[in-house]
Amino acid sequence: MGLEAAEVGLCAVLVDEAAASSRPIPMLTARWPEMTLSDAYTIQRASMARRFERGERLVGMKMGLTSVAKMRQMGVHDPIYGHLTDAMRLEEGGSISRAAHCHPRAEPEICFLLARDLEGPGVTPEQALEAVGEVFAALEIIDSRYEDFKFTLIDVVADNASSSRFVLGQGRGLSGLEIDDLVMTMEINGEVVERGSSSAIYDHPARSLAAQANMLAERGERLLAGQVVMSGGATAAVAVKPGDRVRAVVEGIGAASFFVEP
Ligand code: OOG
Ligand code: MG
User: Fold this and answer.
1) Selecting from 3.30.1490.110, 3.90.850.10, 3.60.21.10, 3.30.70.640, what CATH number does the domain 5-261 have?
2) Which ligand is nearest to the CA of 73?
């Protein structure tokens, strides 16, 4: 049992309009308790289709809830994915407006740029790494469209995994770099607010990338050369406020930063 096509369409409008207006909405499952996880991914795609109609372009994907820190913080214990568009990309050092968000939070991540297509099922972390052109220290700005930043697994999937913006630092190749246990920190206004290791990202960020390819295969889709994939927050996310300068540093890779307009 799941939702009718018209209900899927309505849910896509609700999350899309909540994002566009920065006005949080009640969880969709409160109104549609029969919604399935498959419905939620269909809603996610329908909401993305609305963005594409407005001229946004798909530039990649993101994994979420791949670390224990994030699962604990959100009370949701299964990895999920979302879509990233060109409009979500913030240039390194760029600024966001607090008013354009519901309740923004930042989290330190590692991002991959694919040099080759990656198609599941059955992609291993080793195969995933072979498709990578560059890695980046990254920050994700998540902004759940649900009231109080509270959701179930199904709700957060329908809401494109809380995706709002993402920032990439300088990229580098993988040669001479092991990414399984790099120190990752997040600073706000020069103070370290979170510290972790890249091993927190699904045991290994490459395992997250492989999982992204394998999850897409369930819908007959694949990752394409030129796309980016955010592997998931290594630590809990932290709320940001006007005037904050946020910076993530990943050992051996680099740093990414953004600013919240005062
Ligand atoms: C869901 C998205 C999680 C991550 O990196 O774990 C995510 C959320 O926490 O709102 O992006
Ligand atoms: Mg994230």
Assistant:
1) 3.90.850.10
2) 1
